[in-house]
Amino acid sequence: MAEESVFRGGYQRRTREVTLEELCKMPASYALDSSVLVASLIPSDNHYEMGSVVVKRLLDSDDVVYASAIVPVEVCAAVARRTRDRVSAREAGRQIVRWIRLGRLHVLYLNATRMKRVREIGIEYYIRGMDAIVVAVAEEKKIPIVTFDQPLAERVSLIVKSITQENFTEKIIRPEGERESD
Hints:
51% of the residues lie in helices and 17% in strands. It has 182 residues and is α/β, with parallel strands linked by helices. The protein has a single domain, classed as 5'-nuclease (Rossmann fold), CATH 3.40.50. The strands form 2 sheets. It has a 5-stranded parallel β-sheet with strand order 5-4-3-6-7.
């Protein structure tokens, strides 16, 4: 069983056992890669249907979803580049800002400490700088990365767990209350 800290009067630390039922109800946490958001916003994308389901499931649940501050930039630029539709790209940006304001999407900024780690991840695993940023978020928070980028997931499998199109159904798209046991 997991332990949960409970602070009561005088800030004495007490612990109590958390039941399996309580653990199953706790929100999961994920680091969201821009590939999933982009797919959910472009109907012609090969992963549009699954991307839409995954984004809806993550952002409509109690789960905690993190992204790097660069993800909104990447998503808007990708939507504009792939659709040649500036209006849709701007609307995608407004939607991401709404998710942030509603507390559905938690943004982590690139500071000096993270920058150093991102640089090392990029060098060590031969990945793009933007990908290294989201991997660093997942590593820092000790949570899985949700991505449609299978080669990225494979390259960083030694440092973070990945949820990809290969295992979305068992890891994310499941009835409420069911949680992965590991």
